[in-house]
């Protein structure tokens, strides 16, 4: 049982940040924080309304979370993933300070009896999902109650850790109940919402889009652009942006590689079936799914639909004790064994063999990557990057990435770590280390770096010019739209279109107020709304949205069924109240954050650390 309790502890650490403590040694030699003071365990990484978050506490919490994530994923994390964890941990620590202050202001406390009641009758979702507390694929409250009463729960530290969790969660729950106490939705609101999703219409229309020409662009004055810029600063307050040159050495998988893995999977199955090796031992040796491999490939009791379709279909076709032929999924080839069936659940094991380059192919890729690293990795001379790419015949890709976001190639493929490297103190012209993932190797050069903040007028004036020119273009189109609407109302849209040479479009299908209709400007446009206000067969006046001017005629409209609405009203009401409660909580938390004075000093400390190591 103690071993089981230790296995559960890793789930708890995902939700409970380890208690902060002071690291009793010097972290770094110099800080570079303006005063040149030494970074010590008492250095503040941030202040929240004057309350300090110690760097040692922050670093320990980050490392705990990184260790937990790596344990769950059974791999090292990229720098991008580590940066996301750093930001998430920081936000959690800031939020906890703000929440603790709010608990005190509202006199919210938690008692020992409340903790016992919550722990006994309201286990959190992550506990309900633990495999050892499942019966036939569902959470078993009786098993959980026995666990709480067992000596091992206390001896293994489970109850202490559960108490820490509830000491954080119960006050939060009380606070959120106060914040959402006034949430209410009327039947009239529910009916309008139902109508928005179920009233439907079709229309015939003519649209004039906001595509400016050279005359429109020339008509924009500098004074107009400056006025627009001054009035829309929020649009130009953007995250940090880096422009990178990137080379890749992909791990290309050939048909021969796939055939080799399939042959190995079949040979491994033969060995298991013949009794040469047990399935559990083969899983420990061969499977790359280390989380299950350590347990002999065991995935636990599983209900239908838990796995990807090909795996699920193969598993449920097996009888207990049978071993499947190799099953191909996006993860590779699987050998699957079902241990037992209980009701609508099966106990299943698998061995995962990924499709990777053969040893000879991989050796060639690795040699090329080593050459690239030797020629250019961590270089401060930009020309070394170009020279290495030319010698190895590698294509140089130009990409742009934003701070705290992974870099992405044009194909949509994420590039690991280079974005975190670019915003982690690199200077224009610097070359990164060599990074890798399952898809290959990557190296980048930082060409330009724009810090976060308000973009200068000169940088965005072309964008502003186009925006204003688009408005000017619609201004010029309005007289023609008005004339057409007048003629169409008098003679009909077909006759007016024929006279003016304009093309009539029709919506292909019935649409609702919430539909996305490109021809009517997108979603939630005035043109879409007008389709439910105009009489059928009536022609509208020109309807101007940001993207276009529309003149339309309603051809058909169907009203929502009030009887059907009543039948589902209770479910709709519960869902809507839950949505409103979540929105109220998010607004409350955002207001707390906005009202606080938060001095985030992480970048200054990182700069000091880089200075100390250089």
Describe the model.
The chain is an alpha+beta fold and 614 residues long. It folds into 4 domains: 195 residues, no CATH class; 141 residues, no CATH class; 105 residues, Roll (Chitinase A, domain 3), CATH 3.10.50; 99 residues, Chitinase A, domain 3 (Roll). Helix content is 50%, strand content 18%. α2 packs across α3. The longest helix has 35 residues. The N terminus is likely disordered.
Would you spell out the secondary-structure blueprint of this structure?
Layout lengths: L1 H14 L28 E5 L2 E4 H19 L5 H28 L5 H10 L3 H4 L5 E2 L2 E2 L1 H9 L1 H5 L2 H22 L7 H12 L1 E10 L4 H6 L2 H10 L5 E2 L2 E10 L4 H19 L5 H8 L3 H4 L4 E6 L5 H8 L10 E3 L2 E11 L2 E9 L5 H18 L5 H10 L5 E6 L4 E2 L5 E2 L2 H5 L12 E3 L2 E11 L2 E2 L2 H35 L1 H8 L4 E2 L9 E2 L4 E2 L2 H5 L12 E2 L3 E11 L3 H34 L2 E3 L1 H12 L1
Antiparallel strand pairs: 1-2, 1-23, 3-4, 5-18, 5-22, 6-17, 7-12, 7-16, 8-11, 9-10, 10-11, 13-14, 15-16, 19-20, 21-22
Helix pairs in contact: 1-2, 1-8, 2-3, 4-8, 9-22, 11-19, 16-17, 19-20
Q: Considering DSSP H and I runs of 4 or more, what fraction of the residues is helical? A: 40-55%
Q: Largest sheet at a glance?
A: 4 strands, antiparallel
Unreliable spans are 1-37
Structural class per helix/strand content?
A: alpha+beta
Keywords summarizing the entry:
disordered N terminus, Chitinase A, domain 3, single chain, alpha+beta, 23 helices, four-stranded antiparallel β-sheet, 614 residues
């Amino acid at each position: 049982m103690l071993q089981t309790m230790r296995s559960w502890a890793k789930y708890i650490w995902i939700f409970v940040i380890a208690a902060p403590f002071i690291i009793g040694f010097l972290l770094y030699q110099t800080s570079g924080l303006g005063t040149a003071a030494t970074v010590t365990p008492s250095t503040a990484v941030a202040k929240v309304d004057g309350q300090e978050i110690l760097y040692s506490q922050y670093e320990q919490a980050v490392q705990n979370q990184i260790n937990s994530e790596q344990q769950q994923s059974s791999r090292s994390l990229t720098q991008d993933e580590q940066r996301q964890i750093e930001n998430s941990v920081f936000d959690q620590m800031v939020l906890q300070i703000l929440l603790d202050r709010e608990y005190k202001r509202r006199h919210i406390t938690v008692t020992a009896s409340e903790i016992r009641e919550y722990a006994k009758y309201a286990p959190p979702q992550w506990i309900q999902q633990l495999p050892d507390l499942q019966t036939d694929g569902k959470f078993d409250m009786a098993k959980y109650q026995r666990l709480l009463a067992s000596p091992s729960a206390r001896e293994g530290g489970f109850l202490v850790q559960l108490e820490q969790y509830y000491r954080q969660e119960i006050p939060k729950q009380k606070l959120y109940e106060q914040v959402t106490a006034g949430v209410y939705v009327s039947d009239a609101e529910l009916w309008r919402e139902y109508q928005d999703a179920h009233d439907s219409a079709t229309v015939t229309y003519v649209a004039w889009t906001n595509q400016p020409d050279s005359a429109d662009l020339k008509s924009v004055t500098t004074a107009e652009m400056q006025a627009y810029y001054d009035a829309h600063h929020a649009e130009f307050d953007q995250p940090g942006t880096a422009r990178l040159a990137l080379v890749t050495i992909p791990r290309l998988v050939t048909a021969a590689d796939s055939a080799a893995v399939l042959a190995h999977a079949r040979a491994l199955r033969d060995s298991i079936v013949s009794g040469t090796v047990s399935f559990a031992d083969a899983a420990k040796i061969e499977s790359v799914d280390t989380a299950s491999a350590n347990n002999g490939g065991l995935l636990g009791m599983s209900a239908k639909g838990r796995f990807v379709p090909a795996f699920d279909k193969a598993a449920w076709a097996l009888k207990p004790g049978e071993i499947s032929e190799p099953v191909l999924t996006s993860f590779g080839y699987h050998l699957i064994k079902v241990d037992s069936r209980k009701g609508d659940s099966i106990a299943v094991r698998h061995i995962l063999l990924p499709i990777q380059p053969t040893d000879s192919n991989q050796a060639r890729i690795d040699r090329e990557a080593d050459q690239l690293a030797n020629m250019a990795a961590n270089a401060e001379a930009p020309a070394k990057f170009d020279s290495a790419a030319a010698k190895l015949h590698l294509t140089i890709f130009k990409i742009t990435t934003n701070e705290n976001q992974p870099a992405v190639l044009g194909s949509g493929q994420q590039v690991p770590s280079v974005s975190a490297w670019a915003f982690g103190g690199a200077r224009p012209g610097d070359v990164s280390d060599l990074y890798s993932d399952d898809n290959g190797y990557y190296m980048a050069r930082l060409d330009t770096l724009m810090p976060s903040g308000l973009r200068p007028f000169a940088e965005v004036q072309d964008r502003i010019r186009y925006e204003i020119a688009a408005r000017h273009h619609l201004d010029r189109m309005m007289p023609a739209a008005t004339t057409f609407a007048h003629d169409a109302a008098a003679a009909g849209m077909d006759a007016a279109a024929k006279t003016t040479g304009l093309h009539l479009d029709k919506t292909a299908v019935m649409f609702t107020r919430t539909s996305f209709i490109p021809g009517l400007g997108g979603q939630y446009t005035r043109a879409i709304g007008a389709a439910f206000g105009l009489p059928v067969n009536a022609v509208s006046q020109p309807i101007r949205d940001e993207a276009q001017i529309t003149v339309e005629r309603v051809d058909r409209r169907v009203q929502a069924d009030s009887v059907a609405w009543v039948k589902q009203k209770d479910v709709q009401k519960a869902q809507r109240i839950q949505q409103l409660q979540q929105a109220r909580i998010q607004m409350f938390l955002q207001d707390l954050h906005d009202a606080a004075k938060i001095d985030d000093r992480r970048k200054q400390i990182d700069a000091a650390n880089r200075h100390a190591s250089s």
